[in-house]
Amino acid sequence: MQAVKRWTLSLCLIAVSAPLLLAQAPEQQKQLAREIFKQLIEINTTDSVGNVTTAAEAMATRLRAAGFSGNDLMVAGPNDRKKNLVARLRGTGARKPVLFIGHLDVVEARREDWTTDPFEFLEKDGYFYGRGTEDMKEGDAILVTNFIRLKKEGYLPDRDLILALTADEEGGTSNGVDWLLKEHRDWIDAEYCINLDGGEFEREKTKRLLAGIQASEKVYVDYQFESLNPGGHSSVPTSDNAIYHLAGALARLQSFSFPAKINEITRNYFGRNAAMTTGQISADLKAVAKQPPDPAAVQRLSAIPYYNSLMRTTCVATMLSGGHAPNALPQTARANVNCRIFPGEDPQEVLHTLERVANDPKVRISVVPQLDPAGKVVPVVAVPPSPLLPEVIAAMENTLAAVWPGVPLVATMSTGATDGKYTRIAGIPTYGISCMFFEMNDSRAHGKDERVGVQDFYDGIEFNYKLIKALSSSH
Ligand SMILES: [Zn+2]
């Protein structure tokens, strides 16, 4: 209680001189969050040599020390390296629980590709560096910090608050959200889910542009293009060649575009973005947000890769292999074509479109099967967009007004896929809300020298804290 009072007092003092500092988390929380963040970054959680369980256990130890125990704190998973953490902060039960998710695993990072050791937490020039600083151990650290803080403050929400930190979002066959939904749905069942791995808040230098709420995402599917041939001696070639067949099909794919589509969420996004841009782009964004969208504007915006990916299914060649000897006609040629399917479109229909575009009976196209831990094929299904629930929108708007007044809330569709797809498919509406700002023109997620702004991280703690309260206090 005392700590809370001190905080209120210091708030008033700050408010007089610099109202913008209202968003600051108390020093103690910042320190705790930084410690947790550092600990998470320095536990390697890659699929190849890392261990997600180590990270889950480390967070469980901290939560246990804060008072979480028994059935309110679980570490479990399908195997020793891929365990997930689930913690529950009990509420009055007046409403159904809210689930908060974050993934603990990170994409591979090689020391020789980086300027510094990717698994060493480093603060430099206003940034935290390390693999997972942007995707998404910053979000995990924020959630753990706030669950500890709320528990210690004796906060009584009007609904249970559930935290799930999970494995294999980035790859691997032991996806934690999927596993929890199948094996222990009761641990994480909720009215809706907030996923910190999505819904970026966009910042351009020092200007905070918008707070995203990701309510929809594209579906990830790989297709294999394959050409087989009897082969032969390369000194007597023919034009019937596996590599040429494949190359021709890929060249036709290069010049093909799927038809443009706009849904409720992207229309809203384009409309809001029009207000934040100028010139031709602004006019074009306005024109595609109209019903029906203006075809000339659609065509112009399609030249910008990001807008293009928001307006249609995209399919692109990402890997290539073929041949078996320099002096032999190839018997095989294969390519991986990665598609990001517009929400609601049928992956089987996309396959038929690809066959039509390839236009060569000697190129066989098939879906690359995704396997579950038991080796079974996971069927590809469409992911429904989540309805924009008024109580979530209201909580977001109120928290934004308190922390970053004037920053608009914009519903977004993610061009990539997140764990939100599992909860959406399971019937739990899911909203990606990063709770912190990222520099929109310098995303290093999955890349070299990944980093996140120190102040952005600290501001995020307070935003997330206020948002959790707004979602769980009876009005
Ligand atoms: Zn992520």
Amount of beta strand:
15-25%
* CATH top level label of the largest domain: Alpha Beta
Number of domains: 2
Cofactors and ligands present? zinc ion
Output the number of helix runs.
15
The order of strands across the largest sheet is 1-2-6-3-7-19
Mind explaining what this structure looks like?
The chain is of the alpha/beta class. The chain contains 15 helices and 21 strands. α2 packs across α4 and α13 packs across α15 (454-471). The chain is globular, with a radius of gyration of 24 Å. Mean pLDDT is 92; it is low at 1-21. It binds zinc ion. Zinc ion binds next to loops.
Secondary structure layout plus pairing:
Elements: H1 2-17, H2 27-41, H3 52-65, E1 73-76, E2 84-89, E3 98-103, E4 122-124, E5 127-129, H4 137-152, E6 161-166, H5 176-183, H6 185-188, E7 192-195, E8 201-204, E9 207-217, E10 219-228, E11 232-233, H7 242-254, H8 264-276, H9 279-289, H10 295-301, H11 305-311, E12 314-322, E13 328-329, E14 332-341, H12 347-358, E15 364-367, E16 370-371, E17 377-378, H13 390-403, E18 409-414, H14 420-425, E19 430-432, E20 437-439, E21 451-453, H15 454-471
Parallel strand pairs: 3-6, 3-7, 7-19, 8-20, 9-18
Antiparallel strand pairs: 1-2, 2-6, 4-5, 5-21, 8-9, 10-14, 10-15, 11-13, 12-14, 16-17
The structure holds zinc ion (ZN).
